Amino acid sequence: MPPARLKIGLAIEFRNEDPARSYHDVYLEQLDAVEWAEGAGFDYIWFGEHHFSPTGYVPAPLLFATAIALRTRRIRICNAVLLLPLYQPARLAEEAAVVDVLSDGRFELGVGLGWREQEYEALGVSMAGRGERADEALEVIHRLWGGDKVTFEGEHFSMHDVTLSPRPVQHPRPRIWIGGLTDAAARRAARYGDGLAVTGGTARLDAIYRVELEKHNKNPDEGLIWNSFRWFFVSETPEATFRQVAPHVADWVNYYVDWGITAWPRVARLEELHDPVHHFRVLSPQQAVDYISEYLAAVPCHGITINLQPPRYPIERAKEHAALFLDKVVPHLR
């Protein structure tokens, strides 16, 4: 069974798909949407990280987290995911602590390894050994946030008698989510994280995560899973909405295929978006309740996320779908 109060997140990609619009205007519009999400009742805002995207997709996630912290009062803030191997962990621990201070304890750190070799190359980091680099970084962050005077000698990072200031507001520290859909991600989440963040995760991955928690002397019932349903739209007229929104989701998928994702097939016909790999659904409220309830019965989750809007889909229309999801679906899941 899902927890007594399932947490609900909204993902915003902070990207500009319209060359005629300034990044200033687009980013402010999306920050306005964050304020709307808080008022509408979402529990979390999630956002990712990419570099050198032609649409300006969140190249500075902690700056966005800071902006969100200063525009909101209640909603929790989580980057999902920050590309951890690209960071110096002591600097990351400092900056994330400042975000937690500015948000008065509402920040959660989501990290992953990433998949674009071009990003690693351009930022001067080798993809070889990125898992080991991430593990060292997580150990450093844990120790710095724990208040220790840290001396650390690793293969990738070293420091001597370093003490973090300011410390995070949250005690003992902000929650850490490990993102990924691999066995290695589940193992890393069990060892270093407080939860595993997935997109379309499976019961098999949940089982691996629970086994790994036991190996590290942690209660498997206290391990958290957060699932993203990504492009999940609730509509009173699903067929009409599918025709409206599907071309925009197809553009999003093809953008990533062109960018180098090989796990997804390119979309030539909109009907191909029904393939489960694309995580795209347009459902009536009752269909949505049934679909998510069945998933939660197999994979109990601490929270779930939907994305706000695919490329160039009108943001006000996207808000209508999100509001209907909150109004007609979420109460039945809780």
Strand order of the largest sheet: 1-2-3-4-7-8-9-11
- Rg calc: 20 Å
Q: Identify the overall geometry.
A: globular
Q: Provide the CATH topology.
A: TIM Barrel
Number of domains: 1
The name of the CATH superfamily reads Luciferase-like domain
Give the strand tally: 11
Helix/strand class: alpha/beta
CATH architecture: Alpha-Beta Barrel
Give the CA-CA distance, first to last residue.
Answer: 10 Å
Low-confidence parts: none
**Tally of DSSP helical segments:** 10
Oligomer: single chain
Please outline the major beta sheet: 8 strands, parallel, barrel
By CATH reckoning, the class would read Alpha Beta
**How large a portion of the residues is in β-strands, by DSSP E?**
15-25%
Q: H/E order of the elements?
A: EHEHEHEHHEEEHEHEHEHEH
The overall average pLDDT, rounded, is 95
Helix content: 40-55%
Give me a quick take on this structure.
By secondary structure, the protein is of the alpha/beta class. It is built from 10 helices and 11 strands. Helix 2 packs parallel to helix 3, helix 3 (89-102) packs across helix 5 and helix 9 (285-298) packs across helix 10 (315-333).
Describe the structure.
The chain is 43% helix and 18% strand. With 334 residues, the chain is of the alpha/beta class. It has one domain: TIM Barrel (Alpha-Beta Barrel), CATH 3.20.20. The chain has an 8-stranded parallel beta barrel, surrounded by 6 helices. Strands 5-6 form a two-stranded antiparallel sheet. It starts with 6 loop residues before the first strand and ends with a helix. The mean pLDDT is 95.
